[in-house]
Amino acid sequence: MSEPFATNILRPSAPPIFNGSTNVRQWITRLNIFFKAYGAVDEETKFNFACSLLDGPAIDWWLFVQSEMAEGNRNSFVSYTEFVEELTNYFTPYSDIASAEKELAEIRQIGSVADYTKKFSQIMVRIHDMSDGERRRCFIRGLRPNTQKEIYRQCPKSYKEACRIAQLFDHASFQLFPQSKPVFRQFVSSPQNQATNGSRMEIDQINTNHPKRLTEAEKEYLIKNHGCFSCRKLGHCRVL
């Protein structure tokens, strides 16, 4: 195939023929990469080139669309953006979209925010008509409660901003409370222990390799929430 656009030293091959049997979103992605590499920006040029790659059921669909436009049953278009939208709507099985919507409704953060965001994005791209507001709401819904509260406090206006806030909060939380796992064993009464008032917990292992010293604000937070200065976990206090 002759090169339709001005070329550079690196010449990516043209996308394959699309006949409707392969993933339409992946095909469009390859098409957009091809256009970007060759500097194609004109909508009509991209539209005509994309149509030339249709075959089988895909070209049958395009012939039907053209007949609908000729009869006045459908608005005429020559825009590449409109073409992509129509093609995606027609060749994306509803079952795939329904499955992605179900997965998006059920996904919850288990590990880090970065891992959750990656999994969320992989599901989200399968729903082509999802608005930014819907993305933002679904993303926040699956986060841990403390992260949700921080995002609601800052009132992000977009999905991208909500992702940024969540990742910053997750990073800050990890710095304050590193994921150390000290091992505790139940305190066993002994004559020496009986001489003291109340019961205590002995610490077999304490992780002291912290990234930084506690600030006064962090110390105050740990004291108020019964946190340990050594492992920085809540719910117990180290006996000094």
Descriptors:
Non-ribosomal Peptide Synthetase Peptidyl Carrier Protein, Chain A; 240 residues; mainly alpha; 3 domains; single chain
Structure description:
The longest helix has 18 residues, at 159-176. This protein has a two-stranded antiparallel ribbon with strand order 1-2. It is built from eleven helices and two strands; from the N terminus they run H-H-H-H-H-H-H-H-H-E-H-E-H. The protein has 240 residues and is mostly helical. It folds into three domains: 24-91, no CATH class; 94-176, Non-ribosomal Peptide Synthetase Peptidyl Carrier Protein, Chain A; 178-240, no CATH class. Helix 7 (132-141) packs parallel to helix 9 (159-176) and helix 8 crosses helix 9. Helix content is 52%, strand content 2%. The relative contact order is 0.06.
Give a brief rundown of this model.
The chain is mostly helical. The protein has helices at 24-37, 43-52, 57-70, 80-91, 94-106, 113-124, 132-141, 145-154, 159-176, 191-194, 216-224; strands at residues 184-185, 202-203. Strands 1-2 form a two-stranded antiparallel ribbon.
